[in-house]
Amino acid sequence: MPDTRSKPPRHVVILCHPEQDSFNAAMAAAYSATVREQGHEVIVRDLYAIGFHPVLKSAERPGPGERQFADVAEELAVLKDSDVFVLVYPIWFGGPPAMLKGYVERVLGSGVLPDAVYEGTAKGVLAGKQLLSFTTSGLKEIWLDEMGQLRALTQAFDHYIEHAFAMAPSRHVHFGHITPDMEPGWARRHLEEVRGQARAIVRALDGLVVAE
């Protein structure tokens, strides 16, 4: 059956790392290049580069008199036609950077009341879309597992976002012991895994289109 979609699927990559030459930036670039090669659209939002302000303002709190600021409206416009929502960030002290938490609060949470989250009726711009996360840490994965850190992060962040904003089941890929002296071979291997995940997402989306 021919591909009848009017436009290619859109992947929105949210990069959250203060260093422009970080391994996180390399992952975002590898993912983006791979899906573009497959004919999909990619938009990368580097939160530090664009100077995103993560602090939720009083006027933005959901409820009567809520106000939406221009920077949030811009992000929502980018997310509106997305098919895949990709997060790329380091784990700092057991959780995502404050910048990314603020993005969730200000952008994804815009106009979302607690009751809607509880009832699963918060149908925002990401409803039904896929969530894919790539994370890194300077510590080895075995230590993170012993501390239960990855399980806790996945449950408290990934699964919460998935449920709160009515998204499709999420996927999380983590790379531990990412340090400045990391062997180049390991870096290449990790980046190839990122590319593999990108190709898998593309195949899944293209398969859905054919099935329709």
Topology:
Elements: E1 10-15, H1 23-37, E2 41-46, H2 47-50, H3 70-80, E3 84-90, H4 98-108, H5 114-119, E4 130-136, H6 141-147, H7 149-164, E5 171-175, H8 184-211
Parallel strand pairs: 1-2, 1-3, 3-4, 4-5
Domain Flavodoxin-like fold: 10-176
InterPro entries: Flavodoxin_fold (IPR003680), Flavoprotein-like_sf (IPR029039), NAD(P)H_dehydrogenase_qn (IPR051545)
Organism: Sphingomonas glacialis
The secondary structure category is alpha/beta
Rg estimate, integer Å: 17 Å
Instruction: Note the overall shape.
Output: globular
Can you tell me the residue ranges where pLDDT is under 50 for at least 5 consecutive residues? none
β-strand percent reads 5-15%
Question: Helicity, in percent?
Answer: 40-55%
Query: Ends: how far apart?
Result: 9 Å
Question: What profile does the largest beta sheet have?
Answer: 5 strands, parallel
The pLDDT mean sits at: 90
SSE arrangement, N to C: EHEHHEHHEHHEH
Number of strands: 5
Strand order of the largest sheet: 2-1-3-4-5
Number of helices: 8
Features:
single chain, 212 residues, alpha/beta, 5-stranded parallel sheet, 5 strands, 46% helix, 15% strand, globular, NAD(P)H_dehydrogenase_qn, NAD(P)H dehydrogenase (Quinone), Flavodoxin_fold, oxidoreductase, Flavoprotein-like_sf
Summarize the structure.
With 212 residues, this protein is α/β, with parallel strands linked by helices. 46% of the residues lie in helices and 15% in strands. It has helices at 23-37, 47-50, 70-80, 98-108, 114-119, 141-147, 149-164, 184-211; strands at 10-15, 41-46, 84-90, 130-136, 171-175.
